[in-house]
Design goal:
Chain lengths: 114, 114, 114, 114
C-alpha cells in the first residue's frame, strides 16, 4: 500500500466504502422482503376469514382486539409501503453496484500502470 | 499461492466455494429442524386440546381465530413439508461433503507433487 | 509492536478496549431504542382503542387477558424507564467517545516522537 | 509454528479447541438464562392474575386457550428444568475454564524452554 500514489489510495478507500454500503443495502432489502412475505401470509389468512372472525393485532408485547376488515386494509397498506421501500432499495443497490464496478475497473487500470 | 499451477489454483477456489456451500446448507438445515421442533410442540398442544378449544393462528403480526381440528391438519401438513425439505438438505449436505473430501485429497496430492 | 516502549503499548491496549466498549454500548442503545419504538407502537394502538377493548399481555410464551387502561399505564411507565436508560447510554457513549479521541491523539503524538 | 515440537503443537490445538468450547458453553448459558428471565416474567403475570383469568399458551405459531393454574404449574416446572440446565452449564464452564488455564500455563512453560 505504501508505494501507491495518493489518488489510487483514495480510490481504494472509496471502493471499500462502496462495498460496505452495498452489503448494508442488501441486508436491508432482505429484511424488508422477509416482512413483505409475512405480510402476504397475514393477508392470505385475513382474506380466507369471514368478516366477523375474531382477530387481534400484535404489537410491542400486547394484543389488541380488532376487526377483520380493518386489519385487511391496514395490512394491504403496509404491503404497498413495504413494496415501495423494497423497490427504492433495489434501485439504490443497482446504482451502487454499477458505481462499484466502474471504480473497480478504474483502480485495476491504475494498478497496471504503476 | 503464486507458485501453484493454474489447475491447482482452480481446485483451491472450488474447494473454498464448496466449503461455503456446506456451511450455508448446514445453516438452512439447522433452521428448518428448529421449525420442525416448534411445529411438533404446536401439534402436541393441539392433540392434548379438545376439539372445541379456542385456538388462534399467529402470522405476520396478527392473530386469526381458527379451529383445533383445522390447525391440527395444517400443522401436520406443515411438518410433512418441513421433513421433506430437511431430508433433501441432508442428502445435499452428504453429497457436498463427499465431493469436498475428494477434492481435498486431490489437492493435497497435487501439492505434494509440486 | 516490539519496538514501542511500555507506556505506548499500554495506551494502545486501552484504546482497543475503549473501542470495544464503544461498540458494545452502541449495540445496547440500538436495542433499547428499538424496544422504545415497539413500545410507542403498542401505546398508539392502546390509545386508539376504547377502554373496554379486549387486550392481552404477551410474555414468556403466554398471553394473559388484561385491561386497556392498565396496559396503557404499564406501557407508559415502560417507555419512561426505557427513555432514561437510552439517555444514560447516550451520555456514556459521548464520554467514552471523547476519551477515545483524546487517547488516539496522544498515541499518534507518541508514535511520531519515536 | 514450524519450529515447535509435536507435543507443543498438540497442546496448542487442544487449547484452541477448549477456547471454542468455552465460548459455545457461555453462549448456551446466556440463552438459557434469558429464557429463565422470560419464564419468571410469565410466572409473575400468572401469579398476579385470578384463577379464572383467560390465558393462552403460545407455541409454534399458534395460541391454545389454557387455564391460569395449569400454566402456572407448567411454567414453574419449566423454570426448575431451566435452572438445572443453567447450573450444569455453569459447572461445565468452571471446569473447562480451569483446564484451559492449566493448559495455558503448561504451554507457556514449554515455549520458554524452547
Amino acid at each position: 500500500m505504501d508505494q501507491l500514489d495518493e489518488e489510487t489510495k483514495k480510490k481504494f478507500q472509496n471502493l471499500t466504502q462502496l462495498g460496505q454500503s452495498l452489503e448494508l443495502l442488501s441486508q436491508q432489502k432482505l429484511q424488508i422482503d422477509s416482512t413483505i412475505r409475512e405480510t402476504e401470509m397475514a393477508l392470505e389468512e385475513l382474506e380466507k376469514a369471514s368478516p366477523d372472525t375474531v382477530v387481534y393485532k400484535q404489537v410491542g408485547g400486547i394484543l389488541v382486539k380488532s376487526e377483520r376488515n380493518k386489519l385487511l386494509d391496514e395490512k394491504k397498506s403496509d404491503k404497498e409501503t413495504l413494496n415501495m421501500r423494497s423497490n427504492t432499495l433495489a434501485q439504490k443497490i443497482e446504482r451502487t453496484k454499477s458505481t462499484f464496478e466502474n471504480m473497480q475497473k478504474s483502480l485495476q487500470a491504475d494498478l497496471q500502470n504503476q
